[in-house]
Amino acid sequence: MNARVEYTDASTDEIDLRDIAVALVEGWRWIVGAVVAAVALALVHLFMTTPVYNSELETSPFPDGLREINAIEGYSYSEERAFKEFVQRTSSYQLFQRFIEDSDRPASEWGIPAAGEPGDASFDTALRRFFNDRFSVSRPDDGGAVLQLSYPQGVQGHELLNAYVSWASSDFSGVLVNRAQRAVDSSISRNEARMEAHLTAYEDEVSARIDRLSEDDQIRLERLRDRLEAEKRAVVAAREERIRLLTQAEHIAEQLGIERPTTPRDLGRQSGERDIVYAEINSQDGLPLYFMGTRALQAERRVIEENLNQEAKTSAIREIEKEIAQLETNHEIQAMLARQSHSPFIDAYNSLKQDNALLRANVVRLEDVQVTDVTQWAYEPEAPDSPRAKLVVALALVLGGMGGILLVFIANFVKSLRAYRRQRAAI
To answer: Is the peptide bond before 387 cis (omega within 30 degrees of 0)?
Structure first.
């Protein structure tokens, strides 16, 4: 009988580090190959990938940069509000598009990957994609803003960012100046409208006053003319009464035989009718008219009859005519009608005119307005932001080494597995 041969299995569950070290040393070719392959792939990646650079510009609100604008009465613009609006404007593609269109340098000189001319659909699409993908704005807690531009190699990114922010700052200052000017113009227009309203109201008031004065003067004139006519009629009536008395006295003088002016003494004392005459004389304050005699009475009567309707200038008539002459020439009305303009006599009008003069004195220049202060301009980066060659190569070395070690372990495992199968087949 053959003797039974027993094989002792030398394997155990423990890991022998010396075996691992020996396996790694023996499999150095795998490790080096894997590292070389990884580095080669990394170099190919670096060669095929376009470098991307990153530039940052830091800005903050400019202190007291809106002093000239806020000096305008009724106009107020806070620095924080203006700066916030500036940041929002710089984040707008439309503003960036206007910058490119207004720039003396075409997009190709900036290196922007947009073919064609501004206004072309393809150009606008490429420019919009470049802005939306590459430009960003962040607001730190310190109240400022950080504007970032990521750009591929060949683009003058830092110059583009600096020029864009400078142009945007100047453009926004111009916008604020125009807004302030429009506010001033609007205030002036409102004041002018109010001035015109005051002037129209005052002209209506003056016209009404002239009408009232003219009506009052006309009423007084009519009353004075009525008084004048009454006084004239009174003079005529007095003359008629005088004629009546002279006629009556003339008849008496004819009866008494008095032809020439005489006195009762010259007539002598007589009886009969003469006693009646003396009694009448004694009862009156003066001599009766018939003592003038028929000739004098007739002469006076004829003169009065001839001048019965001739105008007389009594003191009352002269006073009335004086008042009429004064009323016919109203100097207050003439002065108001002679005015070339009523504006000097309107206090509210002159106050608004003075306000407009002060508003027009508010001349805000573009250089007097500054919203933002650039604390750090964008500079040309020394190395691309991505890909980072050193980091990629380092990762390739690490990953290549790890891959090589893994390959060594796999090769040893396959080798030991084959040996185990041969051993089992030989039993």
So the answer is: yes
This prediction has a pTM of 0.60
Helices (H) and strands (E) in the chain, counts: 15, 4
The whole-angstrom separation of Cα 299 and Cα 297 is: 5
Cβ atoms of 343 and 145 within 8 Å: the answer is no
Residues near 390 by beta carbon (within 8 Å), at least 6 away in sequence? none
CA dihedral 299, 301, 306, 307 (to 10 degrees): 110
Spatial strand order of the sheet with 135-138 comes to: 135-138, 145-152, 52-61, 372-376
How far apart are alpha carbons 217 and 323 in whole angstroms?
11
What's the CA gap between 98 and 83, in Å, rounded? 20
Who has greater pLDDT, 352 or 279?
A: 352
Task: Give Cα 170 to chain centroid, integer Å.
Answer: 21
The whole-number pLDDT of residue 168 equals 93
Q: How many residues does the chain have?
A: 427
The pLDDT tens digits for 24-73 are 666 677 777 777 777 777 666 656 666 778 899 999 988 888 888 888 87
Q: Please state, as a whole number, how many other Cβ atoms lie within 10 Å of the Cβ of residue 378.
A: 23
Q: How distant is the alpha carbon of residue 160 from its chain centre?
A: 34
CB 257 within 8 A of CB 278: no
Q: Would you call 199 helix, strand, or coil by DSSP?
A: helix
- Give the span between the Cα atoms of 106 and 99, in whole angstroms: 10
DSSP assignment string, 346-406: -HHHHHHHHHHHHHHT----GGG---EEEEE-----SS-SBS-HHHHHHHHHHHHHHHHHH
List alpha helices for 257-364, DSSP H. Answer: 264-267, 273-283, 293-306, 315-328, 331-338, 347-360
Q: If 0-12 CB within 10 Å is exposed, 13-18 middle and 19+ buried, where does residue 311 land? A: exposed
CA 272 vs CA 256, 269, 279, 346: distances in Å: 12, 10, 11, 89
Which residue is listed with tokens 């040893």? 412
Helix crossing, 157-256 with 347-360: angle to 10°? 160
Tokens of 272: 């009969």
Q: Which amino acid is at 175?
A: V
